[in-house]
Amino acid sequence: MKVSLGFTLLFTLSLVSAWTLGASQYKQVKPPKTLPEFSMEDQYGEKFGLDALKGHWSIIFVGFTTCPDVCPFTLANLEAVRADLSLRVRPDRLPRVIFLAVDPDRDRAVLGEYLEYFHPNYIGITGEKEQIDTLIKGLGSFYRLAKRGADDMNYDVVHAATVYITNPQAEVVAEMNPPFDPVATGEYLFNIIRGVKFND
Amino acid sequence: MTDLKRYLLAGVVIASLSACGSGTDEVAGAGYLTITDAWSPLAPSTVNVAAGYFVASNLSSDSVTIVEATSPAYSEVALHRSFIEDGLVHMGGVNQISVEAGDKVEFSPGGLHLMLKRPDRRYSVGDQFPVSLHFSNGENVTFNMQVKRREQAANEATGLEMDHSHHGH
User: Fold this and answer.
1) Which domains does chain A have, with CATH numbers?
2) Which of A55, A110, B80, B88 would staple B46 via disulfide (CB 3.0–4.6 Å)?
3) B113 to chain A: nearest residue by CA?
4) How do the residues of chain B divide into helix, strand and coil, expressed in percent and rounded to 5?
């Protein structure tokens, strides 16, 4: 009994040190950050505001649909993280992936099919610039449409690499940065969801 | 940038491991650059941009500079690079890429990639399309890119990794 307790403790300590080592990629937000009210639409045209974040864990990723390299790769990686987590947490605690599409002129029409490609359960939200900016500011995130002129439709979108974790009270509780190694990221999220407090 | 490269491990691993020889991947060489693992992730059907990845090895004794990429399958092809700077994801065109003799350059997710715009038709998994790289010395190399799902490419990488350890390379 004593031996097994010792082992458990040792095992736990080694896990804690593993999290500490990977600290720069993961950051708990303390105290949790309250988000402002906002009004956007999801990919089905349904209203999506602050209330829609409540009652679920969510992973919010800022991006745009005409991004061929980093956005699809991140979304695919987040799906691997979710798949890993789905074996470890109850379905109602599995975080949803929310793609905050910050380029509505190009994103709005294609958002549904774009997300279906990654996972049918992914949620995509976009809306008026003012509403996008409200949520971006609340998250402490950033994006910029790098337009070179009014009629430039080939512009790039510079956006934060960080993804934000919100709890069922719609508060930001953690930030994660690439690399999103599926196992390490799943482990971190698992502990965040279980309410483990650790220094990072 | 370094972090991003690591995060894109899957892509990089596929690239570097299959350079050891996967057997199924087509190899194109024109005496200047040898191209392996040329693939393009299946793009969401509504989006008319895609990425292209490959490994270009310079087995010649001269430095080779890639100045342009073209494809009959896409009306616009550009040499591109994604990178993270101050926590922001940027993407931009690259004028040219030099590969020293004996060296190689990897086009892989999150780093160098071909930006492919406006396909001539919708491409599906299993399809392939030709791409040409043009060099500053006037030469070029043409090879086929395979359209794959990202997870398919990642699984192949895992398989190759096991193969890799067995042969003790």
Assistant:
1) 2-194 (3.40.30.10)
2) A110
3) A69
4) 20, 45, 35
Give per-residue pLDDT as tens, B96-139: 999 999 999 999 998 999 999 999 999 999 999 999 999 999 99
A residues 173-192 near B, CB within 8 Å?
177-181
Q: Provide the whole-model pTM.
A: 0.78
Beta-bridge mates of residue A176: A26, A163
Using a CB-CB cut-off of 8 Å, the residues of chain B touching A114 are 44, 46-47
Comparing CA positions, the residue from A193, A67, A64 lying closest to residue B110 is A67
Class of domain B2-151: mainly beta
Q: Are B4 and B111 in contact (CB under 8 A)?
A: yes
Out of A51-60, B5-14, B79-88, the most confident range is A51-60
Structure tokens at B42: 């299946």
* Interface predicted TM-score (ipTM) of this complex, two decimals: 0.72
First CA to last CA distance, chain B? 28
Please list the rounded mean pLDDT of every run of 10 residues in chain A (200 residues).
44 41 74 97 97 97 91 89 91 95 94 87 96 98 92 89 96 92 91 76
Taking a C-beta distance cutoff of 8 angstroms, is the pair A86, A94 a contact? yes
CA-to-CA separations, B70 to A106, B29, B62, B80, B130, in angstroms, rounded: 25, 16, 23, 13, 9
Residues of B in contact with A84 (CB under 8 A): none
State the nearest Cα–Cα gap between B101 and chain A, in angstroms: 28
Evaluated on CA atoms A142, A148, A152, A156, the torsion sign reads negative
Query: Using CB atoms within 10 A of its CB, is residue A167 exposed (0-12), middle (13-18) or buried (19+)?
Result: buried
Tell me the pLDDT tens digit for each residue of B42-83: 988 778 899 999 999 999 899 999 999 999 999 999 999 999
Q: What is the dihedral of CA A115, A117, A122, A125, to 10 degrees?
A: 0
Which chain A residues are closer than 8 Å to B125 by Cβ?
Answer: none
What residue has token string 């990429």?
B69
> Using the beta-carbon criterion (under 8 Å), do A117 and B50 form an inter-chain contact?
no
